[in-house]
Fold these 3 entries.
Entry 1:
Amino acid sequence: MGRGKIEIKRIENSSNRQVTYSKRRNGIMKKAKEISVLCDAQVSVIIFASSGKMHEFCSPSTTLVDVLDQYHKLSGKRLWDAKHEAPQGEDISTLNYKELMVLEEALENGVSTLKAKQNEMIEEENQNLQFKLRQLHLDPMDDNVMESQGVYDHQGVADYEAQMPFAFRVQPMQPNLQERF
């Protein structure tokens, strides 16, 4: 049994619209990766969500700039003017309102992408440091670490109870199964 056809129109329910967007975006990205690998094609996909978040894929064998340059050469369409490549103060003053808005949005997207990447890297580093810290605290073979933390008592026996800030008491799930003394 095949899937039913749906009418292609805007989804009014915002939650359903977001789910559909996410699924279809992932599907497009998957297809882009597959055609890139299977056919050795140069593929570049850029999707902007209604929230302004950008999702992109570019074949590993190329860059977005190379794909856009090739598009420009083969189609003859101008994607951007040379004055937009590296605008200076005086160049910006010649832009009209729409061009300034596009430039501002591109800068905001760039900043948010950089912040997200920075947060991702900080989180990854934090996880690595926490893992290393746990390794240092849990390695019972490293006597130097154990001694420096005062884990051993005066007889050289490890005092693990001193490390435990609290204790657990196991209780049966069913009160009628408890032993009576």
Entry 2:
Amino acid sequence: MGETKATQENIKDELDRKLVLSRPSRELLEELALTAAKEQSPQATFQYAFALSKSAEKSELRYAVTILDGLVKEGYEFQVDCMYGAATALYLLGDYDEARARCEAILRTQPKSRIAKELHLACIEAHERSEKKKMKKAAMASAGVAAAIGVAAGLASIMLKK
């Protein structure tokens, strides 16, 4: 289990590095947006949405999911690529459960997809890290409350002795 966990952590960290390095420039996004608007073809729309799916802007990530989901519904030829792009955007948005579900859907049809496996493991690790962070926060809050109660009890005890 420890080895698998370490591998999962390494995969998440490596994927995060890849995603930072693959963020599209503002110029590229503008160029792809103009091309998509001009050509109005599924291919141009896909290229724009797939680039958006790696953006640093939350609004662009949400827009990418909307566009990519729309392409899937319209029967676009490269549906798995659309699903992967949407999963990537959801991962970057912090919606790890939905991103993971998309990866699982890809893996059901393409069980050997390395990129879907990596993103799937990264989603699991990110979700676990998020849960740990929430638990630490709750523990800190509980410790603060316990300390405040202790101080109040100490003060009450001092005041009762007077």
Entry 3:
Amino acid sequence: IRRRLPRQRASGQCSTRVGAVVARRAVDLPVREASVGTTIAIPGAVVEEDARQKKADQYRLLLFNDPLNKREFVARCLMTVCLIKEGDAFQVMMKAHKDGVGIVGTYQFETAEAYCEGLKAKGLSVDIIPVDGDN
């Protein structure tokens, strides 16, 4: 069995031709080193930190008045998607119908987001907002 040896290039790199593709050894490839960032504290200087907004613990699911869908359909969607009892779903729907917006409930973020997406898929106008610590 004859073995093909790698050819030496003028640049000193070895490569083996396989058809029209040139294969290189991993040690021949350029390496990008990670940049090192050093923070130096200067006495008396004010340190500014990136304050990321904390995610709220609870979120309100809001239902907006919808002139396109019938009231019974809206109440039925609230019952099926959000698992609300019939009487509560009717009250939320009527609040949204009369006042323009009704609060479906207060939930954890994942639950509120899932209910919001489910109701939007049914064609309802809904949104979630974070609950302040004051309310």
